[in-house]
Amino acid sequence: MKTLIRYIKLYLHFVSNCTTRELLFRTHLILSFSARLMLFGLYIMMYDIIYKNAASIGSLNYDQALLYLSIFFLVDTIGFTFFIKNFSTFPEYISEGKLDIVLTKPVDSQFFVSMRYFSLTSLFSTLPPLGLFIRQVSRLHISLDPYHLLIFGLFLVCTLIVYYSIWFITNLILFWVHRIDALHEFFVTIWRFMQFPPDIFQNVIRLFFLFIVPILLTIEVPMQALTGSTIKISHIFLLVGASVLSLLISRILWKMGLRRYQSTG
Amino acid sequence: MKSVIHLENLRKQYSYYKKQPGLWGSIKGLFHREELFVDAVKGISFDIQPGEFVGFVGPNGAGKTTTLKMLSGILYPTSGEVSVLDHKPFERKAEFQKQFALVMGQKNQLWWDLPPMESFLLNKAIYEIPDELFKKNLEELSELLDIKDILNVQVRKLSLGQRMKCELVAALLHSPKVLFLDEPTIGLDVVSQNAIREFLKKYNEEKGATIILTSHYMQDIRRLCNRVIIIHHGELLYDGTYDALHTKYSDSKTLEFTAAEEIPESELLKFGTEMKKKNNTYSIEVPREKTAEITGKLLEKYTVDDIVIHERDIEEIIGEIFISKKMRE
Q: Which of A21, A98, A105 comes nearest B97 by C-beta?
């Protein structure tokens, strides 16, 4: 418990430092927020166009699809709030030896490199999907009782753990290959597949997103919990299992990576 | 007395890929790469006692920084033993990490866009420094390093010297027992170098901290370190006092003086060897044990305006030690 409080306090320091810094650069803040907003608007437009030509995608009608999209973007912007700056800095840690200082600190190094930077811009970017989410919940007459909200929240945490772990693991490749520019974009690109309902992925691609990069159920299961739909027990196991396993693998690979770390001269 | 730092046959090997020259070499490298290994540190051993101020010297690529990184737990040794404050550094235990600090002249821990005070407060949280101790240390260190008026100025607006002073404060707030300094004066002007030197000297004397310093500026080593360890190509060449190094490996000194009159070369060569002349400034190599005697004779015989006695350059000495060691082998 003491350790947890210590890490929360430390994280608040990180948040405070990053927020102070981002507030210094107002133009950057406004431009980044505008870019995220436009991207979000673009996806809604795309859904509009698709649903003018089709009654459903997979098993989702237009309103359900927009709820799905809002959850996808909520996870995405929350993930960006916590991790984007950390993971885009990762190549500097490895190829420029900036990890040196981190490794001398009496703090868990994985925590340090994963949480050191916080993105205020991305936090603001959670507002549009949050707005859409509330709108769709209302349009679909979903009753937000505490039980469903709690289950939804727990599955969302599992989703964020999968999101973090897989993103983190892709960055760890740098310990072995030393240099890949913009490696963090690799996960972001794969993650974008999840903006579409999982039903559209079939055969090998479905298996790939279920077992190799297990992100297929990360939006669907929390959404089913929220709407009170029946969730397949196997899907719950797959999502929870993926979160535990991916976090564990990220820890093991981080330790292995540190043994390979050569720093710079 | 029990050693604070103990190294025995410490070795570090790096691997790298051989790059063939040219575009075709690069294309071939996509399919096949030859992995090569280089020994950065080749089995060095030494012990350091509490409170020692040790200069860790050697040319570029000698293995100094790699050794410091193994001592501070950044790198895993390939083989051998290493212990600092009774801990194996590579285990990176928090208990150990709270007792040492590493300052690197070429890498910083301060947040670039924020005032140093924010980084200090972050370190307070990282090292769990009690409020009272933090206040006391910050007051004392900022006073000693004269940085009180820049604590709330953005780091990016500070000069290199001011930044290095702040880096030192950030590293020392938790009162480390062991301090590793890797080129802390690199790139600084003479005034800043002196300020940092004076501070380190005082810190070592007053706090009794054990310090290992690597530097290319021999002034740093001469003025601060009571012990010098020389490393070259990953091997330990010398471990002893600075003075003993000169006595043992440099049997001559250089006398440089300006005389009012013209002195014939043949006259001067009676006093020493390798004479050099520029206008009325002369320099001669004289045997170390006869330096005082010859200086007296020169002052007696000629009208000398100015005279300086130079020790031989440490880099030269290191080169010679290395060559003589190779020849012995």
A: A105
